[in-house]
Amino acid sequence: MKKNLLSKCYGYSSGTMKSIETPKAGISLLKLFILMLIILAQAGVTKATPSFARQTGMSCTACHYSFPELTPFGRQFKMNGYTMTMMKTIDSKEDSDKVTRLKLLSYLPLSAMVQTSFTSNAKAIEGTQNHSIAFPQQISMFYAGQITPHIGSFIQMTYDGQTFGMDNAEIRYANRTSLGATSLLYGVTLNNNPTVQDVWNTTPAWGFPTASSGAANSPAKSTMIENLGMQVAGLGAYALFNNLLYAELTLYRSSAQGAANPADSTSMMTIKGVAPYWRVALQHSWGDSYAEIGTFGMAANNYVTGISGEMDKYTDIGFDLQYEHTMTDGTFVLHSSLIKENESRNSSVNNYNFNNFKIDGNLYLKDGLGATVGYFNSTGSVDADVVASSTNKPNSNGFIYQIEYLPWYNTKFSIQYVTYSKFDGSKANYNGAGRNAADNNTLYLLAWFNF
Can you name the residues that pair with 233 across neighbouring β-strands? Predict the structure, then answer.
């Protein structure tokens, strides 16, 4: 959704599916869609619910207030490696039935997602047609569920109307032990997007809004950590002590889809060595309430082009807060995050600072209705290399209002309205051609089906 120097080099914006080009898309995608239907048809008798619900035998509401917003049980399910199952399994044991050598689900853990949307901008973007329809906005297929008793996956393959590629993906190992009287949940994560492994809805991969329009104008700059999906691969370890303190360290290396592998002179923004990502969080429940407070961040040294020469050095440090309160008729959830980025470029004597603050409050009612109000505010140094506006400032702020309705737990219809008080540094005439911040206000209608 937002684009910075890193995303310009990669050629994508955060908030949209980042993917590789599809050769001969018409024929190959038709074959893929037919294959998807055949595989799903073999998945056994289902209740038209995604693969995690099939695996656990539970309703989608066990893990989600409103997908993809996780409940406390959903967070535990994910941290435990997506492995809990009530489904009949194919088992094989050895050593007098003490060691399990095989435990396969009876059916492949497959599901699919379809999104279609309508977008209307307050004023048409120059050179484009307003009031656009995306059908589809996304079609995704998921391999999501238990692989072994301690290993599970969440792997998403997405077609976004133009391109096809592996979207968010994680394979996770998890186990439990105890340190004296203290419980310890520990695991290993292999993923392709920093924060996709996170269980709180405050970090970039799963933060609000979880769906947005690709036909709307978005501020030019965002943080590095928001723009690495499908461009990296990371291996890390995590632990949850006494269900209170969570800690994780993951190391990322460039692994760009649709680009040279290994990286060569044609590559852009390749990480030198590895880029560490860290996450620490404290959580606590009391009565009908729950709170989490934490920090996360990432540091990376990137070659601007090729695998030598000028470099950009990024340090992103984030802070987040999540609060939940359960009521008779529903749940209130508050999210907030602040990401502070420092960037040093060999091509400039200046250091660039950028801050991205977000807060949103969500009310989810048991009858399927939900409402969210969110506020965002970005500020930073003048940056003519990224922000091509009359001020070259990345300062943008505004509100996001959303109403949603889930007539069934795997189906969502939402209305979203985004308003801007400031856009790329100015309220009025920010581009020097008469376009105002409010001209980018966007009405977005979304239909989202999971099956």
Answer: 253
From CA 394, how far away is CA 392, in angstroms rounded? 7
Which DSSP string corresponds to 347-383? Answer: T-SSEEEEEEEEEEEEEEETTSEEEEEEEEEEEE---
Q: Using one digit for the tens of pLDDT, what is the confidence trace for 365-400? A: 999 999 999 999 999 999 999 999 999 999 999 999
Residue 88's Cβ-count burial label (10 Å; 0-12, 13-18, 19+) is exposed
353-391 core/surface letters (b: 16 or more CB in 10 A; e: else): ebebbbbbbbbbbeebebebebebbbbbbebeebbebee
- Rg, Å, the chain Cα set: 22
d(CA 408, CA 344): 49
Residue 130 has pLDDT above 60, yes or no: yes
Cβ partners under 8 Å of residue 107, min gap 6:
42, 43, 44, 54, 87
User: What is the Cα–Cα distance from 364 to 61, expressed in whole angstroms?
Assistant: 11
Both tokens assigned to 98: 């003490």
**Structure tokens of 117?**
């949307």
Between CA 359 and CA 398 the distance in angstroms is 11
Return the amino acid letter for 129: Q
In sequence order, the 6+-apart residues with CB closer than 8 A to the CB of 271 are 232, 252, 253, 254, 300, 301, 302
- In the structure encoding, which two tokens stand for residue 175, read together? 């186990």
Entry pTM: 0.88
Q: Determine the pLDDT at residue 64.
A: 92
What residue type is 172 in one-letter code? Answer: R
Q: State the Cα–Cα distance between residues 63 and 61, nearest whole angstrom.
A: 5
Could you give phi then psi for residue 86, rounded to 5 degrees? Answer: -115, 5
